[in-house]
Amino acid sequence: xxxxxxxxxxxxxxxxxxxxxxxxxxxxxxxxxxxxxxxxxxxxxxxxxxxxxxxxxxxxxxxxxxxxxxxxxxxxxxxxxxxxxxxxxxxxxxxxxxxxxxxxxxxxxxxxxxxxxxxxxxxxxxxxxxxxxxxxxxxxxxxxxxxxxxxxxxxxxxxxxxxxxxxxxxxxxxxxxxxxxxxxxxxxxxxxxxxxxxxxxxxxxxxxxxxxxxxxxxxxxxxxxxxxxxxxxxxxxxxxxxxxxxxxxxxxxxxxxxxxxxxxxxxxxxxxxxxxxxxxxxxxxxxxxxxxxxxxxxxxxxxxxxxxxxxxxxxxxxxxxxxxxxxxxxxxxxxxxxxxxxxxxxxxxxxxxxxxxxxxxxxxxxxxxxxxxxxxxxxxxxxxxxxxxxxxxxxxxxxxxxxxxxxxxxxxxxxxxxxxxxxxxxxxxxxxxxxxxxxxxxxxxxxxxxxxxxxxxxxxxxxxxxxxxxxxxxxxxxxxxxxxxxxxxxxxxxxxxxxxxxxxxxxxxxxxxxxxxxxxxxxxxxxxxxxxxxx
Length: 535
Fold this sequence. Notes:
The chain is built from 13 helices and twelve strands. The protein is of the alpha+beta class.
């Protein structure tokens, strides 16, 4: 298989165009100056003169044309150009006395060029044309009495050499092109693997950072950037001293390499990350290069989630065994309280006591239901979701099932907000957050109002959703416990709503955190996974 390289052909055509322009000019100049009068045009000076002039004119015109076309010709045009050159060279050789003139080696340059820029069949046809023309002009010289039969043998030998030159250059050119194609294919494969590795690193849930010995960050993936909330400098670079705690952990590891670095707390949400370090060793030919440090950044929430799954499995077995034992007596207590409340002999104080019994039995029953919901939770069924389409429908469905007057402001910051999550889980989480937001807003402002704000993160381009209410927010002392199970500040609460919401988010590889927004309002923020992520 013979292939051609447009770039290589253009380069060779450029060189050959300058060569033929210089050759034609040199032959014409030598003829005018009378250099080697016994060689150039010694048999037919007029033919040599007009042929040289034509050669020079055609070389100049073709050079301008090739320059205009960026030295890019198709196969037919290249063959025609070389064919004209062979005819002109044969005429110059004939006008100078044939093979004895010493101009015949000029044919090898044209044949070699054709063997490189033409297909093997075309280059062989070019060599055959040159051979036939040389044999014809040799026979003509013999007929005119300027040579003998030995000259015909020399012409035959010249033709054989032209064929050998053509075949040799075609063979080696084909081998070189195949090698170049193989190298190009390998380079493309390496580039593909490099891009694939970069994509894998970018999509890894574990954060990856590579820093130089001077503290310059050379590589950081999206997970590390998101976990550390690392902002670039004005010149687009990052350094380890941008996060003093991180730099301190690295120095501690360098001093005590076998010690385990403590968890690092990042941001206003005090998100904890675990750091692991490793030295990057380079090959011997790069031994003069300073060692670089590889930093793994892991979200402790992932580790905690795995531990929590074990706890939930134990909790499921426990609740399955005791739920029946608790709910039956609890039902009996509730039923007895109801019967007791129907007695006409009870006073107001005793009726109040029966109400307290019923209220607390319902609360205990709700706690059991929530715990059972945790232990019976089904595996996630993630689906591609556009929040810009899904959220308006959720708001409409939620408002339709509420008897009291509520106000939900929906703000979509992007036309398309794609993510991947189990929509039933998201509806459950969002219902719980909106319920809490409406309740606390009404307590403070007298109006049940929340704001849902959804958009794409400007750095990672991952979707997020904020639930903002008008309440007082969570006190600083309770921030560390707000997502713990059974933690509540209300006498009637079970303390499992936010815990269950975070568990559902994390099972969908999303995160749920509490913070204050730019207006210092109470805000729960859900940060979703990458829309193309499969889990």
